[in-house]
């Protein structure tokens, strides 16, 4: 998506954005990510209140800002991309959508499709967190549980879409999910006083958020909305059970190769061969960033640490980001006072079953 940014440029950032927010507020709607409507397609949104999520300060690390994406509708950052994708699908009169998903995109599509009165066809691994299955069924989507990973689900959608008349809204195969996720870049910059942090920690599967934020930074610079400064180092975080980006980054490859037997309780990170891998690798290098992976035990330890010491129930994906922060601090790559932004991409409560299982926790039998 490209915009006539010169037409937006006339207004100072704060005025443009707060005027949008005030307009929405007057109409009784929560503006959320639509406060950035001047840099989004100019159509009537299908909204459930996505975006403008809180940025929380850590109690222990003065430089850490945690963006709590679990506060989105359907409890994950996927709401942003699917809100815009379904908005545009309705705008263009599409009636049937299909998506392969690691879990949270499925739940988000199901919700927005229900809100728009559009059919949703969902393919996801059979062992997704139960919440992902429940929400998809509850919102009335057609759900297929697949004995495989998101890549197998993607193949099934590709095989059937022509015959079934489905529009495929897979990651990066249409422009609007990226465009919705781009709002994370605008928000984090605005919430930090229109300044870049030193680094952004992003739990990475398909990488749409990473690519979207990088696009947002380019637009912010063109608009002159962000204070001049170096763009953040982008840190892609994965699980050691599925780390194609880390392998490709460390080997200085231009693209990733399929990760075999992907296995992690951070289900959103189970993307064995991201479609936009080459874009992510370019961004990681250009930003002076890196890709890091941690075993599930380390991710779980960080999740428990943040629950006990910060009162925040992270998703396993978010806990991969906090584990990565600890690692870079210990290595001396970051100082305590460096301002960094960590994404908790989903609400911990969506993962009640898989996190309890990872902890070996079972409900005691009642008398
Ligand atoms: C909670 C969570 N975090 C991170 C990711 C990875 O997101 P992306 O595919 O945009 O890299 C997902 C994807 O399903 C997810 O559900």
What profile does the largest beta sheet have? 6 strands, mixed
Q: What is the overall silhouette?
A: globular
Radius of gyration: 20 Å
Count of all domains: 2
The unreliable regions are none
CATH class of the largest domain: Alpha Beta
Alpha-beta classification = alpha/beta
User: What portion of residues is helical?
Assistant: 40-55%
SSE topology string? HHEEHEHEHEHEHHEHEHHEHHEH
Strand sequence of the main sheet, in spatial order? 1-2-10-7-8-9
In total, how many beta strands? 10
In DSSP terms (H or I, runs of 4 or more residues), the helix count works out at 14
Bound molecules: pyridoxal-5'-phosphate
- Mean pLDDT over the residues: 96
Tell me what portion of residues adopts beta-strand conformation.
5-15%
The CATH architecture of the largest domain comes to 3-Layer(aba) Sandwich
What can you see in these coordinates?
The chain folds into 2 domains: 55-76 and 176-358, Rossmann fold (3-Layer(aba) Sandwich); 78-168, Rossmann fold, CATH 3.40.50.1100. It has a 6-stranded mixed β-sheet with strand order 1-2-10-7-8-9, sandwiched between helices. A 4-stranded parallel β-sheet has the order 5-4-3-6, sandwiched between helices. The protein has helices at 5-9, 13-26, 78-91, 104-116, 130-138, 150-164, 176-181, 183-191, 208-223, 244-250, 277-286, 296-310, 316-330, 352-359; strands spanning 55-57, 64-68, 96-100, 119-125, 142-146, 167-168, 199-203, 233-239, 290-294, 340-344. α3 packs parallel to α4 (104-116), α8 (183-191) packs across α9 (208-223) and α12 (296-310) packs across α13 (316-330). The protein is α/β, with parallel strands linked by helices and 367 residues long. The site of pyridoxal-5'-phosphate has 19 residues, from α4 and α9.
